[in-house]
Design goal:
- The complex is a heterodimer of chains A (about 140) and B (about 425).
- Chain A contains 5 helices and 7 strands; from the N terminus they run βαββαβαββαβα.
- Chain A is an alpha+beta fold.
- Chain A folds into 2 domains: about 5-70, VC0802-like; about 70-140, VC0802-like, CATH 3.30.2130.
- Chain B has helices at about 5-10, 10-35, 35-45, 65-70, 105-120, 140-150, 165-170, 180-195, 215-225, 340-345, 385-400; strands at about 85-90, 100-105, 130, 155, 175-180, 205-210, 230-235, 240-245, 255, 260-265, 280-285, 295-305, 305, 320, 325, 330, 335, 355-360, 370-375, 405-410, 425-430.
- In chain B, helix 2 (about 10-35) crosses helix 3 and helix 5 crosses helix 6.
- The longest helix of chain B is centred in the first third of the chain and has 22 residues, at about 10-35.
- Classes of the chains: A alpha+beta (about 140), B alpha/beta (about 425).
- Chains A and B meet through strand 1, strand 3 and strand 4 of A and helix 11 and strand 20 of B.
- Bound molecules: zinc ion.
- Zinc ion (ZN) binds near residues 248 and 314 of chain B.
Chain lengths: ~140, ~425
């Protein structure tokens, strides 16, 4: 039920983000989801890609610092309070959300969010209990 | 006004005779009493009697900061310990500090040259000097303190820090002369403005500013904002402390009390003496000190000399404003920083390589220190909160080492220039010209 995400340190310099993306596309690695968090000094690029190992290797070869983390990918019901409901489940059980980002599925109308939780196992358990649709790596491939 | 006309305005031939006599005495004193100097002289086969003219000084080897550190704590003292009445040290944190020991006469000399400095900065018996240099093991405030006593002026020994109190005292006591670093003076100006106080509402007329490099632009700024005549003071613990040299209100260089401290300028690469007007490293020899006479001390400070009589009437040699350091030692906001200190701090952090670069800038006339370090797999986190905590942590560790707040910037691995011979660790973008 867990998905793997890679994060990349991006120096705050022109062209650095572009270079990371370029390196991946040259290797024909598909980016399924993407988010950037940044300060004035640096950024963190988070990606879900088609081939983590390949992506990590090629990025590291190009002097990027890369880290792999486990995240949960969840479908959000297409309702006004869809995301709020999902977050509510976690909040009720005091499970901290470090960050979330969304991407849109090609297949359905549902939005999909990537969540990084402090306690991922507990998070999965809680979401399952509440019948949230947690996506597997296989599921994501089709999106 | 001149504090000691006899010496400050002495005829140059007479001065040279005095300097030679004192140099010969100092050389003999060190040769007889300081094993370090005896060995230095013996190693190259010269004796004190070989110093027959002032020019002969270049037969004598230099004394370096390392020599003084090696002698820690009392190895350079030239008198029995019971004659030492005060000790100060440099703030050296990379290795052992340099210790300076003062006899009663040394303190008297320090008071004398500092009194000259205060008078050059418009001080009289009737002035109140707010002395914001630190009082402690570092020499900072003491020279001015003793100098004010000698002059009979009122010294307010407020020491450094506590800006709110500084401003209260400045108003309540109607301080007329301010002594501090130029950057602190600027900070005081900012705070005064914030409190809605005009220069006319405070009584300051002059500032004795030093302990860091500063520019003419900074002088203009301070003079305008504080309504003062801003004058440069220079000194170093190894020689005696602040007060070795001071600008008069002509603002054409700092008068070195060269009846007590003999100045030379050398090319720091060839070690050859340079002429008046040529820029090079300042080398100082104490001519009268008893506790710790020092011969040909390499200050690393870059300046030039002139021996022309100043419009103020003083014949003391003048050094130009210091424009740099001959090594990579940095002075940031008056604090000495060695790149090696930063390196040492970085090495305390797991996952950091000691690949770093220090960038010193001076936006708005205040020094800013940025340290760029390369991130690594171990350090990197996908969580912003953790990354910011890492930057803060690095900054705190460096601050503990050097005593200054720094701005830490993480950069990509292997993105900083690698050593090709000597690594470029420091980029000083401040302009002191
Ligand atoms: Zn003058």
């Amino acid at each position: 039920m867990k998905n793997k995400q890679i994060s990349i340190f991006i120096e705050n310099k022109e062209g650095k983000l572009k270079k990371a993306i370029e390196v991946l596309s040259k290797e024909k690695i598909n980016i399924r989801a993407l988010s950037i968090a940044d300060t004035t000094k640096f950024g963190i690029l988070r990606l879900i890609v088609s081939d983590n190992e390949k992506a990590k290797n090629i990025l590291e070869k190009n002097n990027f610092v890369v880290k792999e983390n486990e995240v949960i990918v969840v479908e959000v019901p297409d309702k006004p309070d869809g995301l709020n409901t999902i977050l509510g489940y976690l909040d009720d059980k005091n499970i901290n959300v470090e960050y979330i980002y969304a991407f849109v599925s090609k297949k359905t109308n549902e939005a999909i969010v990537v969540m990084r939780l402090e306690d991922i196992d507990n998070g999965i358990k809680v979401l399952k209990e509440n019948n949230a649709n947690i996506l597997t790596p296989e599921d994501i491939k089709e999106y | 006004m001149v504090w000691n006309e006899k010496f400050e305005c002495m005829d140059s031939e007479e001065k040279k005779k005095l300097q030679l006599r004192r140099l010969q005495e100092t050389v003999k004193k060190t040769y007889d009493n300081v094993p370090f100097y005896k060995k230095k002289f013996d190693d190259i086969g010269i004796k004190p009697k070989d110093i027959k003219s002032l020019e002969d000084i270049d037969k004598i080897p230099f004394t370096t900061k390392t020599d003084l550190q090696d002698a820690y704590p009392f190895g350079m003292f030239a008198v029995p310990e019971e004659e030492i009445i005060e000790i100060h040290t440099t703030s050296g944190t990379t290795s052992k500090p340099t210790v300076s020991g003062y006899t009663e006469k040394d303190i008297e000399i320090w008071a004398e040259v500092s009194a000259r400095a205060v008078v050059m900065a418009l001080g009289t018996k009737r002035d109140r000097i707010q002395n914001c240099y630190g009082y402690g093991l570092f020499t900072g405030g003491f020279g001015i303190h003793y100098g004010c006593h000698k002059l009979g002026a009122t010294v307010v020994p407020i020491s450094a820090g506590n800006t709110k109190r500084q401003i209260e005292v400045m108003q309540d006591f109607q301080s007329t002369i301010l002594t501090c670093t130029p950057s602190y003076a600027l900070y005081l100006a900012e705070v005064l403005e914030k409190e809605g106080l005009n220069p006319e509402e405070i009584s300051l007329k002059s500032g004795i500013l030093g302990a860091e490099m500063w520019t003419e632009e900074m002088r203009d700024e301070l003079e305008k904002r504080l309504g003062i005549v801003a004058l440069n003071i220079y000194g170093l613990t190894e020689i005696i402390g602040p007060g070795v040299a001071q600008e008069c209100q002509e603002k054409v260089g700092l008068h070195i009390s060269d009846d007590h401290f003999y100045p030379e300028i050398i090319d720091s690469k060839t070690m050859q003496p340079l002429e008046d007007g040529e820029k090079g490293e300042l080398v100082l020899t104490t001519l009268t000190r008893e506790g710790m006479p020092i011969i040909r001390f390499r200050t690393k400070d870059i300046t030039s000399l002139t021996h022309e009589t100043c419009d103020c009437g003083r014949t003391l040699a003048r050094m130009s404003r210091i424009t740099g350091r001959s090594d990579d030692m940095l002075k940031v906001r008056g604090v000495i920083v060695f790149p090696s200190q930063i390196e040492r701090a970085l090495l305390k952090i797991d996952g950091l390589t000691p690949n770093y670069q220090i960038v010193v800038t001076r936006p708005k006339n205040l020094d800013e220190l940025e340290v760029k370090v390369e991130t690594s797999k171990e350090l990197f986190s996908d969580e912003m909160r953790k990354m910011e905590a890492i930057e803060d942590n690095i900054s705190t560790i460096i601050q503990k080492e050097i005593g200054l707040r720094v701005n830490v910037t993480l950069v990509e691995p292997k993105s900083l220039p690698r050593s090709e011979g000597k690594a470029v660790r420091v980029i000083d973008e401040r302009n002191f010209e």
